[in-house]
């Protein structure tokens, strides 16, 4: 599919870069179209998304474009959103992502909204890139590995397991440890912001 010289992949990359804060003017400059034309481009692709082949190359690209918007026509554009490698260079540890995730969730529980750029120096899209990266990591290390009897493994003389199963066990429990650690930390941090709704009810 194409309209005004803009392919579906161009459109997907444009949307990803707009979501990361690139101006519409700069996006249109990269695509060599005028700003009023962008509305026609959007309408065209929104109306024709259903015509894309399920599981096809275009839809696969669309589902992953936010992990690396700096490609295609946007590859060498100043201000284009970088790939997940850029944010991983700044926050390389799984604990970094879990910390942000729990921070956002616990803040939301007390009615606060986290400004990722202010708190962590990254955009919300970069946070989403981290999420996609670590979800893929967990899927590979845990979900795609044949399960085993973890209770028996902990007991002396438990069954022999493969290196992949041993790593699965480690990663599976590491996730719980990280979540418990940061949940306790941020529940304590926000306890003064928490409001008991029963305080507002007269009995």
Structure explained in plain terms:
The protein has 203 residues and is mainly alpha-helical. The chain folds into 2 domains: 2-82, no CATH class; 87-194, no CATH class. Helices cover 60% and strands 2% of the residues. The protein is built from 10 helices and 2 strands, in the order ββαααααααααα. It has helices spanning 8-19, 24-31, 35-48, 57-64, 84-90, 94-109, 116-120, 124-143, 150-154, 163-189, and strands at 2-3, 6-7. Strands 1-2 form a two-stranded antiparallel ribbon. The longest helix has 27 residues, at 163-189. It is globular, with a radius of gyration of 22 Å. The chain starts with a strand and ends in a 14-residue tail after the last helix. The relative contact order is 0.10. Residues 196-203 have low confidence and may be disordered.
- Low-confidence regions: 196-203
Share of helical residues = 55-70%
What is the H-and-E element order? EEHHHHHHHHHH
Sum up the overall morphology in one term: globular
Distance between the termini: 63 Å
The gyration radius over C-alpha positions equals 22 Å
Approximate strand percentage: under 5%
Query: How many domains make up the coordinates?
Result: 2
User: Average pLDDT, to the nearest integer?
Assistant: 83
- The counted number of beta strands is 2
Structural class: mainly alpha
Number of helices: 10
* Strand order in the largest sheet: 1-2
Biggest β-sheet, characterized? 2 strands, antiparallel
């Amino acid at each position: 599919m194409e309209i005004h010289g803009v392919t579906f992949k161009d459109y997907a990359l444009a949307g990803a870069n707009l979501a990361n804060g690139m101006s519409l003017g700069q996006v249109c400059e990269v695509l060599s179209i005028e700003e009023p034309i962008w509305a026609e481009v959007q309408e065209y692709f929104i109306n024709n998304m259903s015509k894309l082949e399920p599981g096809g190359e275009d839809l696969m690209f669309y589902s992953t474009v936010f992990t690396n918007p700096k490609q295609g026509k946007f590859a060498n554009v100043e201000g284009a959103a970088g790939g997940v490698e850029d944010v991983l260079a700044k926050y390389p540890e799984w604990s970094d992502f879990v910390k942000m995730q729990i921070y956002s969730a616990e803040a939301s529980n007390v009615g606060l909204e986290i400004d990722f750029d202010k708190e962590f120096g990254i955009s919300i899209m970069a946070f989403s890139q981290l999420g996609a990266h670590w979800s893929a990591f967990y899927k590979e290390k845990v979900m795609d590995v044949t399960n085993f009897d973890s209770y028996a493994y902990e007991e002396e003389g438990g069954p022999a397991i493969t290196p992949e199963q041993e790593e699965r066990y480690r990663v599976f429990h590491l996730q719980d440890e990280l979540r418990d650690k940061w949940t306790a930390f941020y529940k304590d941090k926000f306890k003064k912001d928490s409001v008991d709704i029963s305080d507002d009810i007269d009995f």
